[in-house]
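Field: COMPLEX_INPUT
Field: COMPONENT_COUNT = two
Field: RESIDUE_TOTAL = 802
Field: MODE = joint
Values follow.
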Amino acid sequence: MTYPSFHPPVRTLMGPGPSDINPRVLAAMSRPIIGHLDPAFVGMMDQMKVLLQYAFQTENELTLPVSAPGSAGMETCFANLVEPGDEVVVCINGVFGMRMKENVIRCGGTPIVVEEEWGQPVDPQKLENTLAAHPDARLVAFVHAETSTGVCSDVKTLSQVAHARNCLVIVDTVTGLGGSEVRVDDWGVDAIYSGTQKCLSCTPGLSPVSFSPRAVERIRNRKHPVQSWFLDLNLIMGYWGSGNAKRAYHHTAPINALYALHECLVLLREEGLEEAWARHRHHHEALKAGLEAMGLSLLVDEPHRLPQLNAVKVPEGVDEAAVRTQLLERYGLEIGAGLGPLAGKIWRIGLMGFGCNQRNVLLCLHALEAVLTEMNAPIERGHAIRAAQRVYGETGHRDEV
Amino acid sequence: MTYPSFHPPVRTLMGPGPSDINPRVLAAMSRPIIGHLDPAFVGMMDQMKVLLQYAFQTENELTLPVSAPGSAGMETCFANLVEPGDEVVVCINGVFGMRMKENVIRCGGTPIVVEEEWGQPVDPQKLENTLAAHPDARLVAFVHAETSTGVCSDVKTLSQVAHARNCLVIVDTVTGLGGSEVRVDDWGVDAIYSGTQKCLSCTPGLSPVSFSPRAVERIRNRKHPVQSWFLDLNLIMGYWGSGNAKRAYHHTAPINALYALHECLVLLREEGLEEAWARHRHHHEALKAGLEAMGLSLLVDEPHRLPQLNAVKVPEGVDEAAVRTQLLERYGLEIGAGLGPLAGKIWRIGLMGFGCNQRNVLLCLHALEAVLTEMNAPIERGHAIRAAQRVYGETGHRDEV
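Field: COMPLEX_OUTPUT
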């Protein structure tokens, strides 16, 4: 048996992430490796921190990419902030809230759940009621941008409710960062994690995180050691510390992936954060117009929709998996399935980062209409592309990509 | 302030890892991304498993790359196999044994330490004595290839001692895999972890691991849940499971890094495992001849030396950090410093994977002699390169790289 090199097929990624990667980023990733303690690498890391602070809109000193995927970023927040016996209020309105609860349990904490229907944002009043009933709670955790449903919760209001009850706030913005408004300092978030393979359009495997001075103080004054050596921020701070201090070896950083993330952040800075948010909003409007012209509807109510992740209801009687297979095989187009109670009921169409552009919107509408037509699905035909074109025409927005 | 793209300087990496990456691997890493549940990606993963089984010389079904660096591979082994209250015998003869002990503590286990001088292999008799004194121990952990000293311990004998006392065995071969003999099944190892940035010459950020059926059984029958959600093998097995089963989403795999690892393993298979081990041995002989001709000596006694990591004693009165700075600045050559009690006393010169070749051996001897000469260090001059050439001439080995 021989083992040839692997050559991936050409795809267009419009699922819930990973998203397509800009060729500039692929080029950066394939530059020759240097040591993780090399002065040139350390200089790059210092810049990375400033660029991440920009992306998160924060001045938090402890802002860095965890050397593992988003779920490790989540675990970094919980393992460092939860102590055994702590009461932690977790708001659940999708898969990732459930995972937060699991993290609390594994860290020895006691989760107190605020439950919300999937597809609905977290209700600040419910959080307030729960906190009133649990005065010993020390932490509140919720998802800003739920990747499983495409719903956006109001981080600023939820954080205010939590702070009024003396709780620190942990926020999941894996799908949020770079795609829609994130303002860590203005919103008063204490710990936040993201992923690189969503709206930053980087390779998966890194998790940008940021911690407020209050969170750092709590981590420094823990009664019990952090249960994970690999994710212990007290140790990691020694490596990703301030620019002039000596870098203490903790683990070998994923060097090429960090080249890639640096380039993604340079691209984000070149475009401008608010411009990137506006671009996501714009192409979402075009996609939505096309989908609605086809007679399809979105799961999430208008004011709470994430532009970068569109949960589309599967029409009655349609085999959603067969549609995805057709899209992949005939158009090289990947869209996502529903998870948990939404499995079989929705598709998740991502418009993330580099993949958020006219070309992808038009391909998706064209391919979806063609496949659904062939399956005799109950849709309106012949209007979707025109509806999207009207959005593009009306605004006169020039697609940069 | 502007943020330009990062262009790393050209280096030759002869430290303790990362090592230089083959251009074929850099090219693989920069191929366009596809989804982590794409059928083409799943097919690549199935092949990856077979290739990793070859590299580890094992038929263990549970053989996969953890989506994070070697220290996370270590933590995967301990977090899954140690239960609160377990007695775990840890053999310490360098930095990574110390880190193992720390892992045991953080998992709620009780470490029982077998201590050895740094630079010495673990003594099977000491292990036997310790196990005799602690009949309740359930696990024995030690390092095969100590990256901090370059010493190799006898895994097969140590494993036999452990098994005779009913203990499972956890082995660190971060620096071993691909560079010198590793035979997981023949040696009777129950859990083993490696890194990708050493003798596999891949990008850092992945940790190949393998678990025996006995280890899997113990993991499946744990009394307490694994404290890490991200590293819980009971969950990860659902994604990296058998080829035909449906892949359950756990976390987003680091896709491009996995392209790279696949290509490294294809290269290893093309060369042949035993041929790769022989190549490391061969260039080590040449480097050693040159170093000794310069009057330098190695820390580790002959029979226990790792060819891929050469710990060289710093001559009396030489500022070792200044030497490394000169090598880096004038020759673009990175070698490693000593750690812990060996800081300032040794250099660590790696001959790892793609970086283990004639060109690097000759550059290193030339540059080191030039820098030491300029510093008036007490060395023999003018013989090092000739000594290495004699090794190459005598064997007639043709350098493939």
